[in-house]
């Protein structure tokens, strides 16, 4: 077969394989865009676990009408302009891939209005075929509507799980965002019924938000952590060992406010809890690790679930020592029995 340059739509559909795994990944990308646009209120409407519809509306900066086509084209971003910018990037996004990827595997509409513009506009995209920008009533901010996810990618659709399961993934991701962004109000509805509301307007470290997201039991057992050394800061909450869990379902780690999974940090946490927790039990925690963005590479994975630290050992030992210290009081007695 001769070598052919693939058409854009196909390139986007291939890229979508990495960025868009399931409805929850779409919600993640759209809500992160809303946060990056400075929104402090985001409405998320879902139908059928997000497969039928995901609509994310924000009150952020909005997009100029003539930039709508750019927003849905590949590698177009307003968030970085050079490799240097990548070293200090503070936004959740920067790869300029999410919208074109999502729009290539769904029936998609991007509608927006900047505060100063008299009217809004909208751009429909169907399975990657970009339509024409048209005027549309819209309050300041942006709405992205994603219908019939994977309607044109049967192989992907097959992997979608039951409505409940997909909804569960979405809710879990929103919970992790809500913990990191208590300043943002989130309203979630499913099949026309409001299901969840995070109030917003509070600052990081708000016990209210902890209560809202993880419930009264976690909040009751929470120990505050806040320690800084060597340009690293670790803050948040760990639950006292009495509140240990059977599974790792309440372990939230953020690096510069970005929710991530990291083996080395997870190991440090486990080690710190090692001698205060029964074998087989899992600690519960919400931890924010902040450091100079130049000391951590966030461009490791298209979905940015992982990061790479310049100095893994230092980070590991810092986390271990901070938590070991925080748990000192609970260690004074003997092992604490699990509460359930
Ligand atoms: P990235 O977030 O990596 O820049 P995306 O494909 O997610 O890439 O979005 C492309 C661009 O579209 C963004 O850089 C931004 O300028 C614009 N954009 C997307 N969503 C929003 C939004 N909710 N509000 C304002 N601008 C947005
Ligand atoms: Mg984005």
TrEMBL record:
One of its GO terms (molecular function) is ATP-dependent DNA damage sensor activity. GO terms for biological process: mismatch repair. Keywords: DNA damage, DNA repair, Endonuclease, Hydrolase, Nuclease. Residues 119-139 are annotated as: Disordered. It comes from the Bacteria. Residues 210-328 form the DNA mismatch repair protein S5 domain. GO terms for cellular component: mismatch repair complex. Signal peptide: none annotated. This protein is involved in the repair of mismatches in DNA. It is required for dam-dependent methyl-directed DNA mismatch repair. May act as a 'molecular matchmaker', a protein that promotes the formation of a stable complex between two or more DNA-binding proteins in an ATP-dependent manner without itself being part of a final effector complex. Belongs to the DNA mismatch repair MutL/HexB family. This is DNA mismatch repair protein MutL. It comes from Luteimonas aestuarii.
């Amino acid at each position: 077969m001769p070598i052919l340059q693939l058409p854009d739509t196909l390139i986007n559909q291939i890229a979508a394989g990495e960025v868009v795994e399931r409805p929850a990944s779409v919600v993640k990308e759209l809500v992160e865009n809303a946060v990056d646009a400075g929104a402090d209120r985001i409405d998320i409407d879902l139908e059928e676990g997000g497969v039928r519809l995901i609509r994310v509306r924000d009150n952020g900066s909005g997009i100029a009408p003539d930039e709508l086509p750019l927003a849905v084209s590949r590698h177009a971003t307003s968030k970085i302009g050079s490799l240097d910018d990548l070293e200090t990037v503070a936004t959740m996004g920067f790869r300029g891939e999410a919208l074109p990827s999502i729009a290539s595997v769904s029936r998609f509409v991007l509608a927006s209005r900047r505060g100063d513009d008299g009217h809004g506009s909208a751009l429909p995209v169907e399975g990657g075929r970009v339509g024409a920008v048209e005027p549309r009533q819209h309050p300041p901010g942006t709405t992205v509507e994603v219908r019939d996810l994977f309607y044109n990618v049967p192989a992907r659709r097959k992997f979608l799980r039951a409505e409940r399961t997909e909804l569960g993934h979405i809710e879990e991701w929103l919970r992790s965002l809500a913990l990191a962004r208590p300043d943002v109000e989130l309203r979630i509805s499913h099949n026309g019924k409001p299901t969840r509301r995070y109030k917003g307007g509070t600052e990081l470290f708000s016990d209210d938000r902890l209560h809202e997201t993880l419930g009264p039991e976690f909040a009751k057992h929470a120990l505050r952590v806040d320690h800084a050394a060597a340009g690293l800061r670790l803050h948040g909450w760990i639950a006292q060992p009495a509140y240990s869990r059977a599974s790792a379902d309440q372990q939230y780690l953020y690096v510069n406010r970005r929710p991530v999974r990291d083996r080395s940090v997870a190991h440090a946490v486990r080690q710190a809890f090692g001698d205060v927790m029964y074998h087989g039990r899992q600690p519960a925690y919400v931890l924010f690790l902040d450091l100079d963005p130049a000391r951590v590479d966030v461009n490791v994975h298209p979905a940015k679930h992982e990061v790479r630290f310049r100095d893994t050992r230092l980070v590991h030992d810092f986390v271990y020592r901070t938590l070991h210290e925080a748990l000192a009081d609970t260690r004074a007695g003997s092992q604490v029995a699990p509460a359930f």
